[in-house]
Amino acid sequence: MNYDSESGDFTLALTGESLIVRPLRQFTEPRFLGLVEVLRSADATFTNAEMLFHDYEGAPREESKGTYMRAAPRIAGELRWMGIDIAVTANNHAFDFLTEGVLANRRNLEEHGLVVAGSGENLTAARAPGYFDSPQGLVGVVASTDDLNVPGGRAGEARPDMRGRPGANHLRVAVERPVDAKTFDDLRELDRRLGYDEDRRRVREGRFPAHRYVEDDDRLYFGPTPEDAILYRRADATSRARTVVDAADWAANLRSIREARETADWVIYSHHNGFKGDSADDPSDHFLRMAHEAIDNGADVVVGHGPHRDRGIEVYDGKPIFYSLGNFIQQTDTIPIQAADAYSRFGLDWSHTVNEFYSVRSRGRTVAQETKPEAWLSVVPVVSWKGRELSGIELHPISLGLGASLGQRGRPVLADAGDRARVLDTLQRCSARFGTVIEQTGDVATVRLA
After folding, report:
1. Hey, what CATH class is 4-157+249-337+372-447 in?
2. Sequence-distant (≥ 6) Cβ neighbours of residue 167 within 8 angstroms
3. Domain residue spans in the chain?
4. Which tens digit of pLDDT belongs to each residue from 162-215?
5. What pTM, to 2 d.p., does this model score?
């Protein structure tokens, strides 16, 4: 053995949503510095950079269901200071400031020393693995999202005679809604009478490959265009809605995972999941399938995020899957400027301040993430391998300060005993369906490995 990296020993720290706006390195609480040490001690550390780092090079998109994300480019350096090496950028805010924002965000993250995956100047670049040189081997990461808030933001492919479109590595997903036979037949007849079937036929023939929108005797897209229509499935009374990923999109991402496997010593697949399963605790149907297939195609670990809360942990074929890691940093209500479209959505105009906007949007800070403990509690897993075999999964619960002042909350610290118990209770409940057992030892919990 000539190189340390050939030992197959490796530690990887994982964090969820980094929605950072302000610097962090000035703080000195032991529970904060202890968390920083956890991140820095790993051979590689990962985050979902859901904040965009730019100087308003791009205009705000026409519509966004949430916050228009922006932090000063220098704040990306705070992530690096904490020990984060890898930042994925495929998420529902990737296109908040159009194509210029996509490129500026990626450029600023890279200029501050972070490896980036999940967005780029065209679709090939957005799907391509990013590579981080850790002391224990080369780490490859592929990142995707199935959530873009509103239409737009998907990266477009380049041609020899046309540049591509900057954007995110977006996977298209359909929700199949089950209905009984009579309702299905009634929908099909109404679809014909309204002329939707003919509208969709013309759209498909003019703009979409035939394989993407398959209709048959038991599947119907009800609506004038395939991308806006609702997919109904003829089913019995016991069936439930399910999500299905576009086959071509997913096949292309599996190619990227296999490419990373050929090149890297360690492979991460990251997915920003905007759908849920039977409950908020459960991952969506398509992500369950994707997580397993990502590992089958070479990923060493799968990490999900998106719902701003923790979901279950599964060990599949000796490889860990984190179906969702919640917020790691949450400072979005201190972004000092928002787009006019955001104000007008709530009946506000130029005379209202940004804090008035945040207050109206959250109904006086009484709804959404403002009052949900799961948005302010999460976990930082540290995964270890020995001789390339999974040897441990440590779970470090964190608190983001629910109830603290606006200027302080949103900064992560290692959780106290009460918050630690709440985090672990959530993880155990969400992980039970996978047969995963979480055991607490002092301040740190572990996943029991068979």
Report:
1. alpha beta
2. 94, 95, 99, 102, 119, 123, 126, 153, 154, 155, 156
3. 4-157+249-337+372-447, 173-245
4. 999 999 999 998 888 899 999 999 999 999 999 988 887 777 776 555 445 667
5. 0.94
